[in-house]
Amino acid sequence: MEDRIEKRIELKAPISRVWRALTDHREFGEWFRVALEGPFVPGATVRGRCLYPGYEHIVWEAEIQQIEPERLFSFTWPVAKSIDKAEYKADYTGEPRTLVEFRLEKTADGTLLVLTESGFSKLPDDRRESAFRRNEGGWTEQIKNIENYVTKNP
Fold first, then answer.
1. What pLDDT, in 10s, does the model give residues 31-57?
2. What residues does 30 pair with on adjacent strands?
C-alpha cells in the first residue's frame, strides 16, 4: 500500500494566476466545488459545505499548514470513516488526517502544479485502502477542475 498520491500537471497560466486559484478561498471553492466559510490562514481550520452532486451532506474541513506565496500551499484534512450519507458523521474530532501539498514551479509555458497527499500509512487498516483509492480518483478529477478553471478564468 502506497503512502502518497502525486499528481503533476503543467497549466498554461502564470504562477500568480494558479496561486490565486489555490489560495483565494472563493476561487478554490469554485473549482473544488465547496462553499467555504472563510479564508485560508496558517493555523486556521476552514470548513465548508461540499457542492459536488451526491456529496452535499459532507462537511469539508482543513487545517491550513503553510502558505509560502507562489510556491507552497498545504493543509491537513480528516479522513472520515465513511462518506456514505447513511453512515457519515460531520464531527471529525479524533479522526486521522492526511497532508495535502500544492507546489508550484515556473515553466516555459506556464506553471507546473505538483499535488501530493501523504500520510495514508497512519490510517487505520480498515480504511486505508478505500481512502487512498477514493482520494486518488478525487485528485484526478480535481486536477482537471483546476486546469479548466484557470483556462476559463485567466
1. 999 999 999 999 999 999 999 999 999
2. none
* 116 DSSP β-pair partners: 6, 101
Question: Domain map of the chain by residue range?
Answer: 4-152
CATH number corresponding to 4-152: 3.30.530.20
Q: At what angle do helices 125-152 and 25-32 cross, to 10 degrees?
A: 110
pTM of the model: 0.95
Phi-psi region of 18 (alpha: psi -120 to 50; beta: other; left: phi over 0): alpha
Q: Are strands 59-68 and 72-78 parallel, antiparallel or unpaired?
A: antiparallel
Q: What pLDDT digit, counting tens, does each position of 90-115 carry?
A: 889 989 999 999 999 999 999 999 99
| Cα separation values, 114 from 34, 99, 146, Å | 21, 14, 12
CA distances (Å), origin 27, targets 24, 67, 81, 116: 5, 16, 28, 20
Q: Would you state the cell numbers that stand for residue 71, as one nine-digit string?
A: 510556491
